[in-house]
Amino acid sequence: MAPAAKPGGLVVPLIVGCALFMQMLDTTVVANALPAMAQSLHQDPGRLNLAITSYLLSLAVFIPVSGWVADRFGARTVFAAAIAVFTASSALCGAAHSLGFLVGARMLQGVGGAMMVPVGRLVMLKTVPKGELMRAMSFLTTPAVFGSVLGAPVGGFIVTFLSWRWIFFINIPVGALGVVLVLWLIPNIREDSVPPLDWRGFLLSGIGLAALVFGFEAVGRGTMPGWLVATMVAGGALCWAAYYVHQRATPHPILDLRLLRLQTFAAATFGGGLSRLGFGAIPFLMAMLLQVGFGLSPLAAGLLTFASAAGALVSKPAIRSVVHRVGFRSLLIGTAAFNGLFMCSYTWFSPATPHLVIIVMLLIGGFFRSMLFTSVNTLGYADVPAAQMGRATSLASTAQQVSLSLGVGVAALIMHISLVWRGGTALAAQDVSVAFLVVGLISLASLPWFVRLDRQAGAEVSGRLARTR
């Protein structure tokens, strides 16, 4: 690695966290504004999930190349350019007058987002000792929690009193400030020797992801002919089968699947992925339930759903001490169980449910989700050698975004199946309730991955290694 001045303390985690703040604020606000956007663009609210899915898909396709780009051109250069692209495409989203234009602008926004957080996280992993990784990861995710806390009420206020277009325009000043901070404080870390880009792997993984996610999203929705949906899903699977063979024979694959031989990394990728699928569906489903199902205004819905993110914020100070006391394995088993059960419990929300009960349930659920994802994100890098950290970041970030995009797709599909099953013509609260139950059960399927973990998994990162000596 070329010599570079390393920022002291928690400067990098906080700056990367601010980029994540902008990304999470955008995602939360968009989810809350979907019904209003659908009405403005003359679309069915269920179809507007494409505004989320297209963005997450773009992230998943371009995240794999982020590590190579950062090594080749320097972290500071790539980070600043990514924020600039994200900001400019936000302006395009705000100017959209059709679903197609909006989806295209969101995909461009995803390209910027794909470079923002993974590149910043890579800088953090290369500058923070493993013993301080849990603390740094907590600082990185705290601004993201603030984004979630502010997203729902801010989005509700904007949609109610202004226009949904302003949910994108507010990114412009935040993005401009981000570029200045990155150019000022982030070191331009880069590798002296960078292998050639794995173009074949990039194309195979990108086409495979695009075909699978879009094909899956279209299943049973009537937006595409059945034969075309089947062709996309089969084609995506074939691309990934070809990529698996390709990466085994390539010394520097764009996504190194051999990292999955590490137990902690595999548990964080697969177990965390199943949990994250439900997490990705929650903002979309909650907006549908409260606004379409219960008839609440965007502002009222936002003021209710912010409780989930507030619960996540409350958990931050306790995560490090809890991991140190009980270890990653016990914490992940407990929080994964609570996470899935609380998502299933949202099935029983109805228009007659007192708002205080909804707030308390969302608050507790957010508390356990924050503990789960902060700990699983940290555990994933616990046993990764320093030389492979860039590849691990690319693979983990890709898996995370695929899980989030599939979460929205699964939720939309289940709602559509429920609608067709009952012979309805418009979405109702019961369709959303069925989707909550299904994604909650999928989240519970993460438990076996955490149960199989060694009791001392991640001991160096949690601090329990020192206790056992």
By CATH's scheme, which homologous superfamily of the largest domain applies? MFS general substrate transporter like domains
Question: Uncertain segments of ≥5 residues (pLDDT<50)?
Answer: 1-8
Described by strand count, sense and barrel closure, the largest sheet is: none
Q: Report mean pLDDT, rounded to a whole number.
A: 79
In terms of DSSP E residues, the strand content is under 5%
Total of DSSP H or I helical runs spanning 4+ residues: 18
Q: What is the β-strand count?
A: 0
SSE pattern: HHHHHHHHHHHHHHHHHH
What name does the CATH topology of the largest domain carry? Growth Hormone, Chain: A
Which shape, going by the Cα principal axes? globular
Structural write-up:
Helix content is 76%, strand content 0%. It has 18 helices and no strands. The protein folds into 2 domains: 11-186 and 256-458, MFS general substrate transporter like domains (Growth Hormone, Chain: A, Up-down Bundle); 199-255, no CATH class. α2 (50-62) runs antiparallel to α14 (389-421), α9 packs antiparallel against α10 and α12 (298-345) packs across α13. 56% of the residues are buried. By secondary structure, the protein is mainly α. The radius of gyration is 21 Å and the shape is globular. The model is unreliable at 1-8 (pLDDT under 50).
Q: What's the structural blueprint in terms of helices and strands?
A:
Elements: H1 11-40, H2 50-62, H3 66-73, H4 75-94, H5 99-127, H6 133-161, H7 166-169, H8 171-185, H9 199-218, H10 226-248, H11 263-293, H12 298-345, H13 355-379, H14 389-421, H15 429-444, H16 447-451, H17 459-462, H18 464-468
Helix pairs in contact: 1-5, 1-6, 1-8, 1-11, 2-5, 2-9, 2-14, 3-4, 4-5, 4-8, 5-14, 6-12, 6-13, 9-10, 9-14, 11-12, 11-13, 11-14, 11-15, 12-13, 12-15, 14-15
